[in-house]
Structures
1.
Amino acid sequence: MGAINAVTDLSVEDGIAIITINNPPVNALGHAVRDGIVQAMQKADADAAVKAVVLICEGRTFHAGADITEFGKPPVSPWLPEVVTEIENVSKPTVAAIHGTALGGGLEVALGCHYRVAVPSAKCGLPEVHLGLLPGAGGTQRLPRIVGPEQALAMVTSGAHIDAKTANAAGLIDEIVPEGTLRASAIAFAKKVVAENRPLKKVRDMNDKVEAARGKPELFADFRKANARKFRGFLAPEYNIRTIEAAVNLPFDEGMKVERKLFQELMGGVQSAAQRYVFFAEREVWKIPDVPSDTPTLPIAKVGIIGAGTMGGGIAMNFANVGIPVTLVETRQEALERGLGVIRKNYETTAKRGKLKPEDVEKRMGLLTGTLALEKLADCDLVIEAVFENMDVKKDVFGKLDKIVKQGAILASNTSYLNVNEIAAATQRPEWVLGLHFFSPANVMRLLEVVRGEKTSKQVIATAMQLAKKIGKIGVLVGVCNGFVGNRMLAARQAQAQAMLMEGAMPWDIDKPLYDFGMPMGPFAMGDLAGLDIGWSKETSKSSTVREVLCEMDRRGQKTGAGFYDYDEQRNAKPSAVTEKIIKDFAAKAGVTPRQISEQEILERCIYPMINEGAKILEEKIAIRPSDIDIVWINGYGWPVYRGGPMFHADTVGLANVVAKLKEYGPKLGADFSISPLLEKLAAEGKKFQDLK
Ligand code: 3H9
């Protein structure tokens, strides 16, 4: 006994074999682990002195799944489904001892065991759907046999983790054992099973729950219908549903065949490749080459926010949510009260939905202090300015902050376009200044662009990234340019959308292919939602664009019941004859004969110039890596995760194809348009953005 291989240990104590896996950080089921488990199980099975087997992991967690880094490479035996079968076929009781997270293949391994014990803090789940996959080691056939098809459906399609208590109630965990005693308790449990001569509970043979659901197709039809919106565009949820259907309707081995087939189909497809890429991109984004992870950070115990409007209020909620007190500054009492009122209403709505305890509403509101005096920000560790998007106004605010706020505090601007270096230059401490670009609604959207000025110190950057994590955002470090990463690329799309209006496409013609592509909405629906009057004023409006005319007619978007679209009471959008006439009049005035523009052209002209802009962003080192750009678009603008982000999408289309199309559309793309040399170079070399490491 002893070491089986580099990651597996086998020992026997008092007739109980203990297989211990140690494969940091998350005990992923890579080849060595799979091999180790099989060898150890066989050894324990063959040893007459062994009466039962415990499988346990070292470190922070039980197996958190198959090793995702092995996906896409040729499989090496033993394959995970074989490992699970091997465990299930051991002739003595096997017990999984779970702590941390038993996820994906990890839970499937546990389901191969005859019994499962867990500590109270443990969690179980089948999160494969987030990787565009389904559980491929029998999880789809075994889970419903324990928890029933309804709960299994919810678990495999949401990927949600359930806690030990819930898992215990569902029969997934046989016994909860005291925290910190897992090894000893699992051994004791195994001994009990032996002493009581309990049967080998093979989940594959537990048919009651699946049989009870047989002949009830409405179970699945209703589930599909209820979740159609959520699953739109994704393949994996539907495939997961089919495997649970198979578990209900077919014998175990036949169900396994369905699982195998659908798993392989997903694994070979673009969607899963995209979602696996995003999994790693989300972890890569925190790594900043010249700001090592051990860079000292500053404590942020008190935050000041200037502006209690939609943006400032939303930003404030992020901090109150994690217990950080916030001082909110406004210029007028009325605006302050309105702002605080909106925040309270937001919290109360959340509480009504049962997602927040009523006492927490008060607790969070209690962390917010409103004031009209900028001086009250003197002792803040971080001040975020969220005032009107105007350079002179921002400079004025920063000049004042410089005099008021203590030294050693971070001064941030929530600008979405402006030059952070220029803002920083309004202070005597530019190294303490950076941009923190929140996305609206700021309490909901996950993206935070952390804008690094020329002089921003590394400590300030490290603190901002850490803070982003703390408030549940995904922080992407970007450099200074007009619009940073997200809005700069959006502008490239906007320019084409506007141009196509004049060429003959209506707003709804342009929005549709983008919606069908998987975006939450197209550019015009988005404009209506945000309000067409952002940055517009009656005094300076000259009826010179469609948007100006719409605003002048008080068609300012959803909030006024009309914008590019007409809206009914439920805010359902309908194409508008008024808008159509305005557009046609503009085109006629410009002497353009409207033409029919294909959906393909609309899509390519909206998306390829964005990709081109993304390539320029990389050339200029505004973004650290292509995947950071994708993270911005997925989390800030709702780019469909199953298409991996604009840069990943470009790779799947082929950069040479993107370049060829940009050249073909060239004359229509506007005088300002030019192809990125980086994009052309990669295309000529047959490379991908993903090759830029
Ligand atoms: C599956 O099981 C398929 C089977 O059904 C069928 C097979 C036939 N593989 O997230 P963290 C790395 S699909 C490889 O920062 P946390 C991660 O990249 C799998 N690597 O920690 C990171 O590396 P680095 C189903 C993995 O504490 C480091 O570990 N399972 C894997 O915030 C730390 O990760 C899942 O989808 C992996 N499976 O969260 C679970 N997992 O330090 C995926 C993590 O170099 N994992 N890494 O950046 C998670 O959800 C979280 O990692 C977890 C820990 C909750 C476990």
2.
Amino acid sequence: MTGLKATWFAFDVVEKLYAMRAEAAKADGVVGAPAHVPMIRTVEQHILEQQRKFPHATGEFSWLLSGITLATKIIQAQVQRAGLLEIIGKTGDVNVQGEEVQKLDEIANKTLRDCLAYRGNVGILVSEEDHSPHVIQEAESGRYIVLFDPLDGSSNINANVSIGTIFSILQRNPGMRDGDVMAQILQPGYKQVAAGYVVYGSSTVMAYTAGNGVHMFTLDPSIGAYVLAQEYVRMPEEGKVYSINEAYCAQFDEGIQEYLKWVKEHNYSSRYIGSLVADFHRTLIRGGVFLYPGTKKAPGGKLRLLYEANPLAFVAEQAGGVATDGHERILDKQPKIMHERTPLIIGSKDEVERVLSFNRR
Ligand code: AFP
């Protein structure tokens, strides 16, 4: 069975399962059971529908995205088991970012690699956890490059705090030599063809954009499928919530310090989880602003441009939000190195603009 046929077969199975559940609910006299079977839409189905809007689309892209959804379902199943002896805790290694590697970091990294390396169209995989990119020998000239943070917020695992996976997809620049791997990877964020994230929280939620709005899905664990929750998600234009690690306040520049004084005089709430993906997800849904500015110790910020800031900036902009490093639009930044860090101010349009207005004073 080809990849596409297999995908359609999977839709069919999922729809039949939903139909059976609806019938069973009706037979049990469940109040509110639908009189007819509702059309459920899985993420794969949604991607194919979106793809049909582009007459020259080949289906390759949906095949690639289904590799990501498969990987995140496997990771989710492992995250659910966090706390069990063989997967909890640190590996004893320190990653290229200088952070202690958690066992689940390693599992998530390997799962993404395994699920994407054999798609046939992924030529290069770039992970936040690895020193260098993986060029897939079997698909050396594969047209897509996938960059990911396999388990964002992983230092929170043992406290059962929401964590997530963030991904970004680039196309190879056809004008470049295949061998020039680093030049292929170091593309500015506006060149992303798709990006998104999964939050492993009270439920597992996926949001993605392929440049035509942001679409959100919830994993239905009973059937193992991401089911459409909301299409064309919009981020509220304002929101009186700020999200920052305020412990570093004395290290921020004057503009940010002034902004932090201002919010306290204007009835704002503070929310900070410490997992970017979860803080961003809340900001996308409820509005507000997330800030991780440069500090005196780390003037270039902490968050990674290619695996964190770029994909979330793409999602934010597609939902009507804004993402900047305080001076420049995130998506315009030309990366110089693979693990480049950046300050990040991201969220509702009016709130980000307000932060920037303090920078200009
Ligand atoms: P970990 O993946 O090591 O937990 O780091 C998470 C993160 O990169 C990002 O998700 C958070 O927003 C940020 O670090 C939190 O950093 P602070 O602990 O300095 O606030």
